[in-house]
Amino acid sequence: MKTGLLDPVGDRRPARERACSLPAGPSEPLPPELADDLADDLHLERLLAAMSDGDRLTRDASRQVLLHPRSDPAVIEHRQRALSDCLRHRERVEELFALCQDALAVRRDILWLPLRGHPSSELSSNVRRLGALADHLEVLHTLCAGIEDEFSSPAFRDLAARLDQQTSPSALADLRALLRELALPDGLLITAGAAVDGTVEPVLARRTGLTHPHLLARMPVGHPRETFVLPERDQAGGEALAALRDRALEDLAHLTTSAVEEVTGFFGDLRRELAFYRGAVRLVDTLRDLDAPVCWPDPSTSDTTATLGIYDPCLALQRREAPVGNDLELRGAGLLVVTGANEGGKSTLLRALGLAQLMMQAGMVVAAEQFAARPVGRVLTHFAREEDSQLVHGKLDEELERMHRIVEAIAPADLLLCNESFASTDEAEGSELLLEVTRALVDGGVQIRTVTHLFDFADSLAQDEGVGAAFLRAPRDGAFQLVEGGPLRTSFGLDLYDRAFGTDLADPRTRPRSDTPAVPKEERP
Amino acid sequence: MRPESESVFTSILWPRGAAPALDASADAASALHDLALDQVLTRIAESAPAARAAWIHPLSDPADIAYRQRVFTALEDQDLRRGIQAFLQAAAHSARLETAAADSRSPLLSVLLHCRALTVWTGAVDALDPLLAARITADEGPADDGSREDEKTAGGAPGSTTRDGWHLLAEHVRSLRRSPTFTSLAADACAAREHLAAFRYDALLRPGRVVVGPHRTTDDLVEHTRAVLSLFADRSPAGPRDERAEHASGSDDDAAAAESTTEATTESTEMLDHVQLWMLEHASALAPELFDPILEIAARTADFRDPVLVRFADEVRFYLALRDMLSPMRRAGLPVCIPQVTSAAPSAADDRRLEVESAWDLALGARLTADGTEVVTNDVSLRGAERILVVSGPNQGGKTTLARTVGQLHHLAALGCPVPAASARIPLTDQVMCLFEREEDLDAVEGRLAREVARLHSMLERATPRSVLVINEAFASTALADARVLTRDVLERIIDCGASAVCVTFIDELSRIGPATVSMVAQVDPEDPARRTLRVVRAPAAGRAFARALAERHGLAPALIAEHLHAKGASR
């Protein structure tokens, strides 16, 4: 039984050909430590908290979906339409979710039984569990009728259509009849042979036929037959018989266990998928309450990113207010370089871009007035660590090591967000390192958004038209709104310092001589 | 053509057929103990009592030694080794089944167990044939790919004068399998198996009650269940659950392979519970057309084992047990080789030359390998007139170990076994005699000295020019002056009788008795003179070991000085 609320089931997937030739299926998942870095760097936990309201299941389901972005626009649209249905028919979604909870509670109630290695008790437990699950499938059948009437998204309509047969009264009647037979009210009839050592080899379990009302045969074994009755106190005989019965029931126990796993697995999948949509609905509500704009993103654009009023939803959720949005149009550029004053909103913009990409590719709404972007494979982050508690490596060593892991994992069409990478060494060395890595990655088809203080690095890219980088600059006026423009040779850090300490180190006339004067481009080897 | 009598296989251990009578002399056993070879004997005696004699008696004919060496060499082939091990396990399994058949109270079950034993045996013999045929072609090269007659001709051709046990065994197995007796055994085993496999009946299991009846075709409950449940099972392709999936072990570990086979064969000899026995007996009455032939087969196949192969199964464990014992050390990188055993007349000039590279002690090797410690190897030689190794040096320096190693080398070589060394040329030895300090000797000094003297006397009485004496710290309990005289006398007696010896002693001047003695000295670590390297080398015994170690520690070792000089020369 398949759910299909997140991913279209079977051949219904209309994989649209894309220029960037991304695989239609999901990309290979990131290594766990890189996925954790991504979640930490983007403050994903704040978003998940708003989606889940403390519910662990919703949090886990949402994290799973957000960290596994899908790049096929058809899949994204499939989810967008499903989410749109969820926003419109909230009671139905709640009913479905509650049904899943009930169905999965059945499994928990009976789980304490020690079943492994005891096919006989495994079978009888499975028969009870399947009986209870049949009742829930019956309820699901009526819910599906309502979905077919009210919902418009293919995700929900297809689910209802598929379930119509599997939860039909006749299918459930067959199931219940089978369960009565598997209770083995007449004993277990087998065909047996003899193993080479003389042990009884159960070849096949057979139907006794006694549950059929029209069969007259009172005895399922033919003539001539012989009966062995165990003496009252023959405990060893009882155990031998039980062991034989267990061997004969292995196949049936396995078959019914798979069926229980299948049906509970279905309810588990459905609950997880619904939990994600419920979280997405809750996020929309929360952001709207803050008057923060949300929009349906467009994954089918040819531009890399074009957005109006994009903001970091996590910041909005934390401050309980709608933050200042930024406008941005990359015009197809694969590399964005953000420079400018400290506290000018650069990191916030970087997070906003990363979250918007993840949310779009999860099928959610995006925190912006408008957002259109070409889907990427995966999103990775290389953020300067504010404090390195484990001083195992030197800071630069740590950064290089982390970049090494990223380069090992990254693939073309992935998106890498760099925040002050290699700022832990001097500018000349840091610039050179970052430039080498950035050039190689961009040449290899990776998209990069980088926030940097390294003037040398940014300036080199600005001079190199072949790279085709786009530039944004944080202004000095503290407006948090970035403007298009290349790097400026002014040290905003000095400004900041001057402001705090009342010095005027930023003044070119009084600025102390730098130890590593910038070398003019022409003189570089 | 080779004479037909020569080509008859009788024993993998004794090419002449009969094993010598086992005169379990205390001397032989005590020598094995002193050489730390008794553990191997215990292992062999447990699994193959018949091989015990082979472990104690040195061989006197070089051809017999070559025969066993060829058996060992062939067993380096993993396929052959695994095949033989499988045969041994099958033979043992078959024997266990026969025992169970004899013990069974149910005549029917007894018959089934007997048929099973028969099947296992014929299967084992059948598997042996292609295994050994591969040996023949591997030995004789591509020139011989013709019929059986061609093979026999090639086997007797000039050049292969040494008889090959595997080759003879292969021919035995081949003719056995072609014999009418065995052919009918195999057919009977097959028929019994097929009859049993065709047996089908119905049984109804209810609480406290079983009903059996003839087999009738009715609806299959499993198929019905699968059909009904399949409607719900489209989420994931449900593969069949096979928990006893056979994992074909690609491991190189013979022991692991042996273990898994044993595991697979133990269950069948368990006693059947009375419920299953009742079902078997009553259901079998429903199918006399299947069970009557099985009874007839059992009756006419009462004795099915080939005595030659039974003896082979017992004796071949001699080779496998020693190989098993050596294999952890070989895996740890310690060398093992088949020695060149020389047996020219004692009068010849170079007849008793001993030349061994990288020898190590079996007992120490086993212990240190288990601990993961590196084992030190030593080179040993006796050339020309040299007969006696006089080993001196610091205590715990590896002297006793070296003496034991030399004894092991000679004994193993005379058994036709591989030896713990990288390469070895070892003269044929008629007996290895040992004088080791024993725990039980730690009583009164006079008693101990008397026993030592008596033992030495008896050793010298029996010693021949082909004997090897291992004398470890003799006369340690006497005054130095006495010991000097006594030991000197013993060495001179040994020289007189022409025997070889290794003598561990603190009286290093004894190494200068004459051309027959060679001095070997246990070395110390140049970095730390207090540490022993366990390396024992040919060197004049002059008590200078400590001084040299100190020199090396301060960078004055000859090799280091040479290195410095060379480096300086190069830099100039």
Features:
heterodimer; A: 525 residues; alpha/beta; Rossmann fold; 2 domains; six-stranded mixed β-sheet; three-stranded antiparallel β-sheet; 12 strands; 11% strand; elongated; disordered C terminus; B: 572 residues; four-stranded mixed β-sheet; 21 helices; 51% helix; disordered N terminus
Structure summary:
With 525 residues, chain A is α/β, with parallel strands linked by helices. Chain A contains 16 helices and 12 strands. Chain A folds into 2 domains: 204 residues, no CATH class; 197 residues, Rossmann fold, CATH 3.40.50.
How are the secondary structure elements laid out?
The complex is a heterodimer of chains A (about 525) and B (about 575).
Chain A (H helix, E strand, L loop, with lengths): L31 H10 L2 H9 L3 H11 L6 H16 L1 H21 L8 H32 L3 H13 L2 H14 L5 E7 L5 E7 L19 E4 L5 H14 L1 H40 L15 E6 L2 H7 L6 E4 L5 E6 L5 H17 L7 E4 L5 E5 L11 H15 L5 E5 L7 H17 L3 E5 L3 H9 L6 E5 L8 E2 L7 H10 L24
Parallel strand pairs in A: 6-10, 6-11, 8-9, 9-10
Antiparallel strand pairs in A: 1-2, 4-5, 4-7, 11-12
Helix pairs in contact in A: 2-3, 2-10, 2-11, 3-10, 4-10, 5-6, 5-10, 6-7, 6-8, 6-10, 14-15
Chain B lengths: L25 H9 L3 H10 L4 H5 L5 H13 L3 H26 L3 H34 L7 H8 L9 H14 L1 H18 L3 E6 L2 E6 L6 H10 L23 H13 L7 H11 L3 H13 L6 H9 L1 H15 L8 E3 L11 E6 L2 H10 L6 E5 L5 E5 L6 H17 L7 E5 L4 E4 L9 H18 L5 E5 L7 H18 L2 E5 L12 E8 L7 E7 L6 H9 L4 H14 L1
Parallel strand pairs in B: 3-7, 6-10, 6-11, 8-9, 9-10
Antiparallel strand pairs in B: 1-2, 4-5, 4-7, 11-12
Helix pairs in contact in B: 2-15, 5-6, 5-11, 6-8, 6-9, 6-13, 9-13, 15-16
Protein name (chain A): DNA mismatch repair proteins mutS family domain-containing protein
Keywords (chain A): ATP-binding, DNA-binding, Nucleotide-binding
InterPro entries (chain A): DNA_mismatch_repair_MutS_C, MutS, P-loop_NTPase
